[in-house]
Design brief:
About 5% of the residues have low confidence. The protein is built from one helix and 27 strands. The strands form seven sheets. A four-stranded antiparallel sheet has the order 1-2-3-4, with no helix packed on it. Strands 5-6-7-8 form a four-stranded antiparallel sheet, with no helix packed on it. The chain is mostly beta strands and about 325 residues long. The chain has one domain: Methylamine Dehydrogenase, Chain H (7 Propeller), CATH 2.130.10.
Length: about 325
């Protein structure tokens, strides 16, 4: 399974409590701000995104980091919660949202330097209270979607001031985990992917949804648009599939690995790389996506990746943030 999915589902009832004294009550991770730590950049990080030219990464214990020098140095943001954070989206250079355990949704208006709590299961209790959110995507600074465990599916049209449960909009009666949500650039199309190979698509910016015929019955961990005519989904067992028609049909892409694939990105060099568990890195230097598999020496799982202006990339996962030089 994807590292982020394992942490979100299996461990969601373990973390987030602090005991002090013989009769102290547990303190929720929603009530406890993230601790500032010099080691934060080496802790488990689960997602990374651009806020303009700034890189922003999220991870365990409410850690949010940002870098203004292409990942060489990282500053820790002020965060009001210490819950595990799992997903991140910046629709513009200043405004961003992060999601995580305890139904937490955070908002930043200063490119990720400071954050405030918009939503949590403590603030808004419902039947999904206690389930983690796994991913978030905003079309603009008003309309956004968050997905998570057991069919958790939320929508906002007012910049996160309020969130509506829209899980009934998709055919997911068994409450399968929803692991990823993403809109295709330049279109009104949004894709949601999850366990058991489920794929849902909206062609009208989330107003209506329909199921897609899936090429795989295992979990999908992510979705990436690597060109106007190529959409990738990926997940368990090293599986990667591509579509040239917004998900109507899919073709499997050979990877040569069996470790779960967690993320993929188009580099400034024109290469496509995908990253996954056990330090797996797949590099395709051609438009045919002929991946060449490599394994990072530390074999630590890589959860997410973003391109760097020099043709390299920056990755996050076990061991924190790491820069991948151009050509690697």
């Amino acid at each position: 399974m994807k590292l982020r999915e394992v942490l979100g589902i299996t461990l969601m009832t373990i973390g987030g409590f602090m005991v002090s004294g013989a009769h102290a009550a547990p303190v929720s991770a929603v009530d406890r701000p993230a601790i500032m730590s010099a080691k934060a950049s080496r802790s488990l990080m689960t997602d990374i995104a651009y806020a303009g030219k700034r890189l922003v990464a999220v991870g365990e214990r409410g850690h949010i980091l940002y870098s203004d020098d292409a990942g060489k140095n990282w500053m820790q943001a002020k965060v009001p919660v210490s819950a595990m954070l799992t997903g991140l989206s910046f629709p513009n250079a200043q405004e961003g949202w992060a999601v995580g355990h305890n139904g937490v949704i955070l908002y930043s208006s200063d490119a990720g330097a400071t954050w405030r709590l918009q939503r949590s299961d403590k603030l808004i209790s419902d039947e999904k209270a206690g389930f983690p959110l796994m991913d978030v995507w905003f079309a603009d600074n008003m309309t956004g979607f968050a997905v998570g465990a057991y069919g958790y599916f939320l929508k906002t049209t007012d910049g996160g001031s309020s969130w509506t449960d829209v899980s009934e909009a998709i055919a997911n009666p068994d409450g399968a985990h929803l692991n990823a949500v993403m809109g295709l650039p330049g279109t009104s199309t949004i894709i949601v992917a999850g366990e058991r190979g489920i794929l849902f698509r909206s062609l009208d910016r989330g107003a209506t949804w329909s199921g897609l015929t899936s090429p795989f019955d295992g979990s999908f961990f992510g979705i990436t648009s690597v060109s106007p005519n190529m959409l990738l989904v990926y997940g368990l067992q090293g599986r990667v599939f591509r579509s040239a028609d917004q998900g109507n049909t899919w073709q499997q892409v050979p990877t040569g690995v069996t470790s779960g694939i967690n993320d993929a990105v188009l580099l400034d060099s024109g290469h496509v790389i995908a990253v996954g568990n056990a330090g797996v890195i797949l590099n395709a230097r051609d438009s045919g996506l002929n991946f060449i598999p490599e394994t990072r020496g530390d074999r630590q799982s890589i959860v997410a990746v973003q391109p760097l202006p020099n043709g390299g990339a920056v990755t996050v996962g076990e061991g924190g943030v790491k820069v991948l030089p151009a050509g690697k």
